[in-house]
Design brief:
Number of strands: 10
Number of helices: 11
Helix content: 40-55%
Shape: elongated
Distance between the termini: 66 Å
Order of helices and strands: EHEHEHEHEHEHEHEEHEHHH
CATH architecture of the largest domain: 3-Layer(aba) Sandwich
CATH class of the largest domain: Alpha Beta
Strand order of the largest sheet: 3-2-4-1-5
Radius of gyration: 23 Å
Largest sheet: 5 strands, parallel
Number of domains: 3
Length: about 280
């Protein structure tokens, strides 16, 4: 079974080896036959197709194993990019490996590595986080993780939820560098650099945000004592803590001086000591 990476936008972004494998495959298992046919038509490939998406993967895995057992060559593709990376394919690949069949990766386009390469950030180490959560509370936890992550972070988001996610990112990440990629490798490709606040402001001016979105966030890197206090207090404020209770928690959880944490809380919240007891 060949795991084949396909273009994430521009149909010319496929390797010569990938095309050869698709042409010679006895069967191509794909996420959406309609989308895969567009690619095959572009390159005059007539191999037979079978749908294998997240709702049918478990049901059709046994069929794939049977075909492999008959000596057939199968190619696995997703709608775009590399299968099994936030796309269907994991279960059938694992089943093929466990059954002793040869699994051959055919590398190529990947939205994650494409975005990282054009982000201008240190990618000697990075963490891929998939799609950002849908609910606000889970999003807060999500960005709390990014806040303390020393490596560059990369994740996907939908056009419908991107403004809400950036609003929470603004609260949590402050001035951390952020780069948003929209419609990467497609006709309307766009890269917006800045902070969560500035990127959100740019998108909020539009009638609508469309297209596939990838966000890359710079790692926290070496932190000064002041930055550590600021980040810790923002995390605790997002959890609903305030005043002296926040200062106590900052001391216990982060080892900060209570006075430093309390003063930073007053600075961020704009409150006075009298107002907060």
């Amino acid at each position: 079974m060949f795991v084949v990476s396909t273009p994430i936008g521009n149909l010319d972004d496929i390797t010569v080896r990938g095309l050869e494998v698709l042409r010679k495959a006895d069967l191509i298992a794909c996420e959406d036959t309609r989308k895969t046919r567009i690619l095959l038509h572009r390159w005059n490939i007539t191999s037979r197709l079978m749908s294998l998406h997240r709702f049918s993967e478990s049901r059709k895995t046994s069929m794939v194993l049977e075909l492999l057992g008959q000596g057939r060559n199968l190619a696995l593709v997703s709608d775009a990019g590399t299968p099994a990376i936030s796309d269907p394919g994991t279960a059938v690949v694992r089943a093929a490996l466990d059954a002793g069949f040869q699994v051959v990766p055919i590398p190529g386009p990947s939205a994650v590595t494409a975005a990282l390469s054009a982000s201008g950030m240190d990618c000697s180490g990075f963490v891929y986080l998939g799609f950002a959560p849908r609910k606000d509370r889970q999003r807060s936890e999500f960005f709390k993780t990014i806040l303390t992550e020393v490596r560059t972070s990369v994740f996907f988001e939908t056009p419908r939820r991107i403004l809400d996610s950036l609003a929470i990112a603004q609260q949590m990440l402050g001035n951390r560098r952020l780069v948003l990629f929209r419609e990467i490798t497609k006709i309307h490709e766009e890269i917006i650099c800045g902070t969560a606040e500035s990127v959100r402001e740019a998108l909020a001016l539009r009638e609508a945000v469309k297209g596939e979105i990838i966000v890359v966030v710079e790692g926290s890197g070496p932190r000064t004592a002041e930055t550590s206090v600021d980040e810790a207090v923002r995390v605790l404020m997002e959890e609903g803590l305030s005043g002296k209770r926040l200062a106590d928690e900052a001391h216990v959880r982060f080892g900060l001086k209570k006075g430093d944490a309390y003063r930073k809380f007053l600075e961020i919240s704009g409150a006075t000591a009298e107002e907060n007891g």
